[in-house]
Amino acid sequence: MDLFSPANKPEIRIQELTGERIRFILTNTDLSMANALRRIMISEVATIAIDMVQFDLNTSVLADEFIAHRLGLIPLDSTEADKIKYPRDCNCSGACKECSVELNLHVKCTEEDTTKDVTSKDLVSHDPRFTPITEGPKDAGILIAKLRKGQEIKVKCIAKKGVAKEHAKWSPCAAVAFEYDPFNKLRHTHYWIEEDEKKEWPQSKNANDDFPPLDDEIFDFTAKPNRFYFEIETIGSMKPEDIVMNAFKKLLEKISSIQMGLHSNDVPINGREPTRDVF
């Protein structure tokens, strides 16, 4: 059984693509595949994020743990995240250039009656490929702390590669959602109405790309959804199209490993010999 034979190959039609958002229609697949793709985009696309923070000096009003937590959530450019190793795959004892990126932060307020903002723009990366995300020269950066005269923060940060299954800071997405059957032809949604369903429940914008039901259309209780409307918003660490492509690659890897396991004659399943010729 080939899940991606020509008859079963999913297709994508992009509706909208910007620097932070992508909308597309996924067709010729089922609900399980669509939901698997959504979950992979949220939690299994690798990015770079600050994982370790060493404080050399902190005289601000914020505790070390508070600042470390904020640093971990700052998006770093992860376009080339595939160029470095996962920490578990590296032979080093702690951190090296093969599996980590060092960033430094050193800010001191020296002016009277002035509050100095410490932002993500003050983070200096030792690797120009992995720097804090900014929206341009006018972007003030992400606020980390505020200092008054005499207060100082000096830290060393180690950023590593990971996925959001380990910690949410590695997620490249701010939101991932999909919708199917905007006209509710499958009757999976039960509307609470008082008088008129059409007036009280307006159609979503995806209804413009779907096929409305006919007035005398017969309900097919065996029908299943095969058209899904995705919308993904990123945090800026990766391009939205790269997130989608990486998620598809990960999904194909998972399916391939399942197929190999089912066809293997040597790997026992739950302590039993595998069944021959599963498909």
Automatic annotation (TrEMBL):
<dbReference type="GO" id="GO:0006366">
    <property type="term" value="P:transcription by RNA polymerase II"/>
</dbReference>
<comment type="similarity">
    <text>Belongs to the archaeal Rpo3/eukaryotic RPB3 RNA polymerase subunit family.</text>
</comment>
<dbReference type="GO" id="GO:0005665">
    <property type="term" value="C:RNA polymerase II, core complex"/>
</dbReference>
<dbReference type="InterPro" id="IPR050518">
    <property type="entry name" value="Rpo3/RPB3_RNA_Pol_subunit"/>
</dbReference>
<keyword id="KW-0804">Transcription</keyword>
<dbReference type="InterPro" id="IPR036643">
    <property type="entry name" value="RNApol_insert_sf"/>
</dbReference>
<dbReference type="Pfam" id="PF01000">
    <property type="entry name" value="RNA_pol_A_bac"/>
</dbReference>
<dbReference type="GO" id="GO:0003677">
    <property type="term" value="F:DNA binding"/>
</dbReference>
<keyword id="KW-0539">Nucleus</keyword>
<protein>
    <recommendedName>
        <fullName>DNA-directed RNA polymerase II subunit RPB3</fullName>
    </recommendedName>
</protein>
<dbReference type="InterPro" id="IPR011263">
    <property type="entry name" value="DNA-dir_RNA_pol_RpoA/D/Rpb3"/>
</dbReference>
<dbReference type="Pfam" id="PF01193">
    <property type="entry name" value="RNA_pol_L"/>
</dbReference>
<dbReference type="InterPro" id="IPR001514">
    <property type="entry name" value="DNA-dir_RNA_pol_30-40kDasu_CS"/>
</dbReference>
<dbReference type="InterPro" id="IPR011262">
    <property type="entry name" value="DNA-dir_RNA_pol_insert"/>
</dbReference>
<dbReference type="GO" id="GO:0003899">
    <property type="term" value="F:DNA-directed RNA polymerase activity"/>
</dbReference>
<feature type="domain" description="DNA-directed RNA polymerase RpoA/D/Rpb3-type">
    <location>
        <begin position="21"/>
        <end position="261"/>
    </location>
</feature>
<keyword id="KW-0240">DNA-directed RNA polymerase</keyword>
<dbReference type="GO" id="GO:0046983">
    <property type="term" value="F:protein dimerization activity"/>
</dbReference>
<dbReference type="InterPro" id="IPR022842">
    <property type="entry name" value="RNAP_Rpo3/Rpb3/RPAC1"/>
</dbReference>
<dbReference type="InterPro" id="IPR036603">
    <property type="entry name" value="RBP11-like"/>
</dbReference>
